[in-house]
Design brief:
heterodimer; A: about 280 residues; mainly alpha; MetI-like fold; 2 domains; about 70% helix; globular; B: about 300 residues; two-stranded antiparallel sheet; 13 helices; 2 strands; about 5% strand
């Protein structure tokens, strides 16, 4: 009895270990290569322990004059889209959660139904609209459509529904108007959900690829994902540059995750989409 | 007049609060969806705009017949990719969540975080790391094959292997969302159920099969829909792992939409193909909800 139990436990631990290795190995190997000086093709015997040298990163920033542009572009788009969603998703979520107005459910389901639509359906008209407005190849072409995402409104509505209404009423008695109630009561009380929303929105924006690759043309206007994907062709002979470019693009999100793990996993539980 | 004023006083703020969001949804989602539907029946050029086609379904016909029916191949590839990926992801997610459930809180958090870590990086970067593993020259997969005494393979440059390699990479990607959501669902099952089963003498596997699995069925339903939709929309992994497409062997629905729409600027056909994707996804969602709903309720 005891013997079968321990071999079962052994199997469990073996499975957990092997899947952890499978989960982390591809990313680990990328970083091991990025931190080991490689100026042409990687060696046939894989580099499993990095040399902890920054040579590749130095060459990346010297030879690829746009890399810092890409990082700044991704940052600008990410921050702008996140700021929009923090403020306006909470505002709309508040109205949908606490207010009773004609056609409320129609509007809510209209927004929610867009979660089911494959986003690819919108790309051709989006391209035509942005081209008419002269926004193609600018960051506006990413920021403006980035404001239309239903996840945050849904998330904030679910969260604000759980807040007690007494505090709002008390603020109204104290003479707050509706904006005041939102700003002084709802927004501060929603902080935990706002944190999850902000993190998810920023990560989604940072990792976005298909629309940016359509909307951006000139290398200096690329976001990080588009730039890194294009490096594959451009630096064919110097893999060190490609590895370090990919690693440096992934690094901010990995650090972000290690710092705010709790909110990530909480966000997944609250109905996030990826992974 | 007073009725209008009263209505505004009563509901004005509510509409003002949803107005910004409703505006961006209208401009950037709802109008584009309807417009795309219209373009799917037109010949559209950026210079001259849209011209209605005769017969009206010409783009849909062309979508399936052009270039020797490559779109049909793309749909077939997408289905193959999806069946293998979704089945594996759901099973692996269920098994891993079950295995970490009895562990301590700290260990459970550790494994969930380890599984989730790769999911926070872009699909493009994840795809790049797999492309390196499958590199024909210096890739890790061929290193292993050489160690075991086998001949190296051209994993992602051989038309017969490329789709399989991309699918394998997706199957080997730990389904982090599934682990986290299954884990949360299992944590919510009342312990009395298990205690009652123990009195009846059920072992761990029987308890798992007769209590855990049925009680988390709504999570399974949600995850199957989520993963199926995601895998039908696969693009980045293919784009970055197999940029050339090695013939047509790794074309999928979305790579077809992208190629027709933004390489050849054939907006009509690309819109028609996007709506085919739309219909397929809506169909899958309805079918899966029906199928899993109609089963036994607990």
């Amino acid at each position: 009895m005891k013997k079968t139990l321990s071999s079962g436990t052994l199997l469990v631990w073996f499975t957990l270990m092997i899947t952890t290795v499978i989960a982390l190995f591809p990313m680990y190997w990328l970083f091991a290569n990025a931190f080991t000086p490689i100026t042409s093709v990687p060696p046939l015997t894989p580099i499993l322990v990095p040399a902890f040298k920054l040579d590749n990163f130095e060459r990346l920033l010297v030879n690829n004059k746009f890399y810092s542009n890409w990082m700044i572009n991704s940052l600008i788009v990410g921050l702008a889209v996140t700021a929009w969603h923090i403020f306006f998703d909470t505002l709309a979520g508040y109205a949908f959660a606490k207010k009773n107005f004609p056609f409320r459910n129609v509007f809510f389901w209209l927004i929610l139904s867009t979660l089911m639509i494959p986003i690819h359906v919108t790309f051709i008209p989006l391209y035509i609209i942005n081209r008419e407005l002269g926004l193609i190849d600018s960051l506006w072409a990413l920021i403006l459509p980035g404001t239309a995402n239903a996840f945050g409104i849904f998330l904030m509505r679910q969260y604000i529904q759980t807040l007690p209404s007494e505090l709002e009423d008390a603020a109204r008695i104290d003479g707050c108007n509706e904006i005041g109630v939102f700003w002084n009561v709802i927004l501060p009380l929603s902080a935990p959900a706002v944190a999850a929303l902000a993190i998810f929105t920023f990560v989604r924006s940072w990792n976005d690829f298909l629309w940016p690759v359509i909307a951006l043309n000139k290398p200096q206007n690329y976001t990080l994902t588009v730039g890194v994907a294009n490096m594959q062709g451009e630096f064919m002979t110097d893999w060190g540059i490609i590895f370090s470019g990919a690693a440096l693009a992934a690094l901010p999100m990995i650090i972000f995750f290690l710092l705010f793990q709790k909110y990530f996993l909480e966000g997944v539980r609250m109905g996030a989409l990826k992974g | 007049m007073t009725a209008i004023r009263k209505f505004i006083r009563q509901h004005g703020w509510s509409y003002a609060f949803i107005l910004p969001s409703m505006t961006t949804f209208t401009v950037f989602v709802l109008i584009p969806v309807f417009w795309s539907f219209i373009i799917s029946f037109q010949r559209y050029s950026l210079a001259r705009g849209g011209v209605w086609l005769d017969p009206f379904y010409a783009n849909y016909e062309r979508a399936f017949t052009m270039l020797g029916g490559i779109f049909v191949t793309a749909i077939r590839n997408t289905i193959v990719y999806s069946i293998f990926t979704v089945t594996t992801n759901i099973l692996v997610g269920l098994i891993l969540a079950s295995l970490i459930q009895p562990l301590s809180h700290r260990l459970r958090t550790f494994f969930r975080a380890a599984y989730y870590l790769p999911a926070v990086t872009s699909a493009i970067i994840v795809g790049m790391t797999w492309a390196y593993i499958f590199n024909g020259q210096w890739g890790f997969a061929n290193y292993i094959l050489r160690l075991l005494g086998f001949a190296p393979l051209r994993w992602i440059s051989d038309p017969d292997l490329a789709l399989g390699s991309v699918t394998l990479s997706a199957m080997l990607t730990i389904p982090a969302t599934a682990v986290v959501l299954y884990s949360a669902a299992m944590g919510a099952i009342p312990t009395e159920y298990y205690e009652a089963a123990e009195i009846d003498g059920a072992n761990a596997i029987r308890k798992w099969w007769h209590i855990t699995v049925p009680l988390i069925k709504s999570t399974t339903l949600y995850l199957v829909v989520l993963y199926t939709i995601a895998s039908f929309e696969v693009f980045e992994r293919i784009y970055i792992m197999v940029p050339s497409g090695v013939g047509n062997s790794t074309q999928t629905i979305v790579t077809q939409i992208y190629n027709n729409g933004f390489k050849d600027f054939n907006f009509g056909v690309a819109s028609a193909q996007a709506f085919v994707l739309f219909i397929i996804i809506a169909g899958i969602a309805v079918f899966q909800f029906r199928a899993l709903r109609s089963d036994v309720e607990y």
